[in-house]
Structures are given as structure tokens and as C-alpha cells.
Amino acid sequence: MEVIAVINQKGGVGKSTTALALGAGLSLKGYKVLFIDLDAQGNLSYTLGASIQGYNAMGVLQRPETIKEEIQHTGQADIIASSTALAGADTVLTETGKEYRLKEALELIKADYDYCIIDTPPALGILTVNALTACKGAVIPAQADIYSLQGIAQLNSTIETVKKYCNSSLSIMGIVLTRYSSRAIISREVTEMIEQTAQSLNTKVFNTRIRECTALKEAQAVKENIFTYAPKSNATTDYTALINEILGEEK
Known about the structure:
Oligomer: single chain
Radius of gyration: 17 Å
Number of strands: 8
Strand order of the largest sheet: 3-4-2-5-1-6-7-8
Helix content: 40-55%
Shape: globular
Order of helices and strands: EHEHHHEEHHEHEHEHEHHH
Structural class: alpha/beta
Largest sheet: 8 strands, mixed
């Protein structure tokens, strides 16, 4: 099972949207996918029709051996849903080895899935550290604005710390630009700056840009992924291209 974390401590960059699209697109290619929602806001869980009542993801972090019991099988996907208790994770998970809880849990089901897609909260606390410790690679959604540029630099510090102490094989798979408009001069200028930052982080900006698309918000409102809701939309085209790029199947 390959574990991919979708991370950015800056909110509003399309993190949950990207996590959902990656998992849904991989499922359409025939892969067996598990979603994990570590964001207390529960946007991914909502869209996939999962219940956030009970312990869910927080239960897995407190008791890794219960992971199979926490998997929900919705009409769209298999998911370990969010929990409001995740908001207090940094004060609850304090014991030695707290960074490895999710990794320990996923070891118990690694033969059951091809991919695990983890949606992380917009913060660099213990939840994001658990995701980075458990994953092989991280995808960073970002907008072509100066705040995203600052956020990526801050995020790199956390990634380097996790690589040093918890997960030496962790890599940044790439930065994906979301809500992108090639017509905006500021987007083009900041994109160049983000590409320079990516080089300094030993990663890349994905060739695929995710264009602004109303269908993404509409799909979320009716609890569907973009591929089933609007298969001919720009967003479907863009996320399909991104998945192919991640898999090395660019055409």
C-alpha cells in the first residue's frame, strides 16, 4: 500500500478537494483506495457521506489496533472519517511514540489497499506529523499567491524534521497549483517563484495546473466526486492529468 499525504498548513488551497480527487481518480483506474480524514473540519468525510460520530480517526491514533473497526464503507469509498475530537489531538496524544500511531495502524491493513490518501488539517501539529511519518510521499496543494509561497517554506521545516527523526524515506512528490488562472499576471509571477522554491526543496511543481472550476464546489454540495459529477469539466481533465503525472503516465 502506497500512502500519500495531502498537506498544507494554509487553509483554502484545495487540500480536501485534491485529496478526494486523487483517491477517486485512482479508484477509477482500478486501484483499491482508503481515505483517512485527519482534519477536524471533516470536509472530506462530509463529501464521502461518512459519519463523524464516534472516535473514527482519533480512535485509530489512540488505539492503532482498532483500525479495521474504524473503516467506514460508504457508497463512494472506504474511509476512516474525521472526528471533532481531532481538534484536541495535540493535548491528548502526548505519550512516547505519538508520531508513529498512524504508521503502526496502517501496517495492519497494508495488504488490503493499493493506496491510502490522507487529508491533513491546516496546521503543523501532531496530526500532520503522524501523516508525514506514515506516508511515502506528500503532495502540496498551493495557490499562486505570496501567502502560499511563505507557507511552503514553513512546511519544509516540518518535513525536514520528520525526515530526520521519524521517516527518512519521506519525499515531497510535488507542489500542485490549484484555482489557477494563466491570465492573471500575479499567478504567472508567483508560479515562477514557487518553482524556484520547489527546486530548493528538492521537489517540483507538477506540470498540471488545476484550473478554477465551479463544478468542484457543486460536486461537494451534492456529495459527489468531480469525476462522476462532471466528467467533462476542466477539473476532471486537470485532476486526471495530475494523477497520470503522479503515476508516471503522462501523455
